[in-house]
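sorry for the late reply, my laptop died twice this morning and i had to redo everyting from scratch. anyway the thing you sent over, i finally got around to it. pasting the sequence first so we're on the same page, its 350 residues, then the predicted structure underneath. double check i copied it right bc i was rushing
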Amino acid sequence: MTETSLPGVGRPNASVGGTIRRIIAASGPLIVLFVMFAFLWATSPPFRSPTSLLLLGLEAAAIGIVAAGQTFVILTGGIDLSVEAMVSFTGVIAAVLIAGSNEAGGQIALGIPAIYAILIAIAAGGLIGLIQGVIITGLNMNPFIVTLGFRSMLLGVSLVATRGAGINIRKDEVLSFLTGFVPIGDIRIPMPLIITLIIYAIVWVVLRQTKFGRYTYAIGGNETAARLSGVNVSLNKTFIYGISGLLAGVSGVLVMGRLQSGAYQNGTNMTLISVAAVVIGGTALSGGTGGIWGTLIGVFIIRIVEQGLVYLNVPSNAKEIVIGAIIVLAVAFDVIRRGEVKWLRFGKRT
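ok and here's the structure:
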């Protein structure tokens, strides 16, 4: 079941069978997450350690914020292939601004307070996202091509700025707070995970309670109908790519702060994983249906799969195979769920 019902997005099925199918479709990823978590909890003692659970939360936070922005884009039927480069780029920008000359090892370093560096880096991510949105809508270009091109440019700039080596920094009070832990009794909750949950709550409110959220679903459901209904499609899509860039920038700063280094490799594989998380969470690649909390569930499913492969002594190279298979299966399930399966019949007209 989607998080909204709009003209052009899909009307609820009033039958009992339709209701049951929607409930199963909505709860399916959550059931899978519980089953996977329970399996690893029962079969792998190291998974039950506090350190393992903290690592799971930290890794989920980094990709979760990127996936939140990707959810907006995919809901409109687009895709943002630049997010992993944006994570690296904004992390490098922040590190360049924060690092002192002694820490940079001959690289560019300005040594300004972290709070200003963080704001500048995040703003740069949002601005570049807006520029991508303007190009996509203004020139009517395919988002695949535009974001792929920006991915290459951003990675190139990051590589040139770092000269192939990370720019190391020292944490101040701001970075220590943003990348630290919040003690709740005997449990230490990673601050990046708390930030991620706050962002998801804000995104949920935006998608559920604002015109912008309803327009996002409407554009993905039927862009032409949305435009004829008076929706400024170009403006809304531009803002959506800006949001994706902004959130990738937030993730880039958090990754940089946790690693204490700005490097062009910081965002490796985040595009693939963010798209996979969105699809696994129930958002259709064609747009118009899906929800933000499903994306968060998808993020945790992927991270648990990755940890499970380690604890079950599966070779690390197999991770890419498993994630690729998960993406294909998730998309196939989405197509089947929406009743769009078309069996090939050779020699016959369909």
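The chain has one domain: 35-336.
thats about all i looked at so far, will dig more tmrw
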